[in-house]
Design a protein that fits this description.
Elements: H1 2-20, E1 27-36, E2 40-41, E3 44-45, E4 52-61, E5 65-73, E6 85-98, E7 101-111, E8 118-120, E9 123-124, E10 131-140, E11 143-150, H2 162-165, E12 180-191, E13 194-204, E14 213-224, E15 227-236, E16 244-245, E17 254-255, E18 260-268
Antiparallel strand pairs: 1-4, 1-18, 2-3, 4-5, 5-6, 6-7, 7-10, 8-9, 10-11, 11-12, 12-13, 13-14, 14-15, 15-18, 16-17
Length: 269
């Protein structure tokens, strides 16, 4: 009797385990939608410290390939020559070379439909803000890191656009292709469904050291009422001489790299 009961018990346990962990589907789709009090990209406000609505869709293959699109409103101010929308397209491949370790290789294209950089004061050229990043990321447990390198001039910055696209005191010094951003993150559970996340990043703008800076963020997140709620403190040491916006006379300037509180509520589906 004992010899019969033991195999039956093992078979029952194995069957229950298989039912508890269904196989990963070959193809999966997901989406996200959020409302944010500000849109911070690498520590810098892209919406001039005003609210932003953001949404995206992602596709993933069981083998590790993935692709997605994401969009957000940005400043839309006339001095940005029509940059009212940012649309990102990305794709890559994730794989796990070891237990709890994953690597991510991919490319991300930033698009700003209709936006043009100035080639002279008040004169729009055919130069665009559009940017292409190639990246390598890794994650281990609650830690992740990513290095992104610009395969194009960094958001259109080069010897022709430098004097006018940013501020006239920025001396043109050639192209900015090869600019790099290092992104470090660590998150952990505090209990009660609350997650604490920390971030440290550094941007190196090739040929334009004045625009290089370090940014940081600390956030807490919790799911309530079927929504994801997040509060984050974001800041940087970006130069106040360059990372500020205002009207043509320099009035009502906003320093878009200063420390601020960003609130967000979103839904994934």
């Amino acid at each position: 009797m004992k010899n019969t009961i033991v195999p039956l018990l093992l078979l029952t346990l194995l069957s229950a385990s298989a039912q508890a962990t269904p196989p990963t589907p070959e193809h999966s789709l997901s989406g996200n939608l959020s409302l944010n009090s500000d849109y911070r990209f690498r520590g810098i406000s892209q919406s001039w410290q005003l609210p932003a609505v953001q949404a995206g869709f992602d596709y993933a293959h069981r083998g590790g390939a993935y692709a997605g699109v994401w969009a957000s409103n940005v400043s839309g101010n006339s001095y940005n020559n029509g940059a009212g929308l940012e649309a990102d397209v990305y794709g890559g491949f994730k794989f796990s070379p070891g237990q709890d370790l994953s690597l991510d290789l991919g490319a991300l294209v930033y698009l700003y439909p209709g936006a043009r950089l100035n080639s002279a004061p008040g004169v729009a050229s055919d130069k665009q803000y559009d940017n292409v990043d190639l990246y390598l990321g890794l994650s281990y447990g609650g830690f992740s890191a990513k290095l992104s390198v610009a395969a194009t001039d960094y958001f259109g910055l080069n010897g022709e656009t430098a004097g006018y696209a940013y501020f006239s005191s920025l001396a043109p010094a050639g192209g900015s292709k090869g600019s790099a951003y290092l992104d470090l993150n660590y998150s952990f559970e505090l209990g009660q469904g609350i997650t604490l996340a920390t971030h440290l990043g550094h941007l190196r703008v090739r040929n334009y050291g004045e625009l290089s800076y370090t940014d940081a963020k600390i956030s807490v997140a919790k799911e309530m009422l079927g929504l994801n709620w997040t509060a984050a403190v974001v800041g940087s040491n970006a130069s106040k001489d360059f990372y500020q916006v205002g009207n043509a006379a320099g009035q009502h300037a906003k320093r878009v790299g200063d420390t601020g509180l960003v609130l967000s509520v979103g839904k994934t589906f």
